[in-house]
Structures are given as structure tokens and as C-alpha cells.
Design goal:
little secondary structure
Length: about 70
């Protein structure tokens, strides 16, 4: 069974109406309702997403003084 997704908003009286479904009248369907993730929760989850990245010395050595073999 291929899922059909639709986004809508719950009305003030707590009802939900989905129009234009691609099913035949009388066809049995399974309905699952999930709350959408809030944008603020996504931003907290990935705080660096969309931020500018700057590399001061991308090809320089990292912790060169810590390598015993170089001494």
C-alpha cells in the first residue's frame, strides 16, 4: 500500500477534514495522525545548521607539538 500524505490544521472544535483523497468511495483505509515537529525543536537539535563556517588555517598542522616522533 502506498501512503498518501496530507498536511492540515486541527480546527478549534477539534475536528479534522481531509478533502480530495485519491481513494474510491467505500474503500477501506487506515488513518494515522502525527503532530508535526516544531521548527524551534529542529533548530535546537541542529544548532549549527545554516551557520557560516570559517577555517583560519585549513591546511596547517593540528597539535604538531604533541607528536613525540617529530622531536
Amino acid at each position: 500500500m502506498q501512503p498518501y500524505r496530507s498536511k492540515t490544521t486541527i480546527l478549534k472544535d477539534g475536528t479534522l477534514t481531509i478533502k480530495g483523497l485519491p481513494f474510491r468511495p467505500g474503500e477501506k483505509v487506515e488513518v494515522t495522525v502525527c503532530a508535526r515537529e516544531r521548527q524551534a525543536e529542529q533548530d535546537e537539535r541542529y544548532p549549527l545548521r545554516g551557520k557560516t563556517v570559517r577555517y583560519d588555517d585549513p591546511f596547517g598542522s593540528v597539535a604538531e607539538e604533541d607528536w613525540g616522533a617529530l622531536k
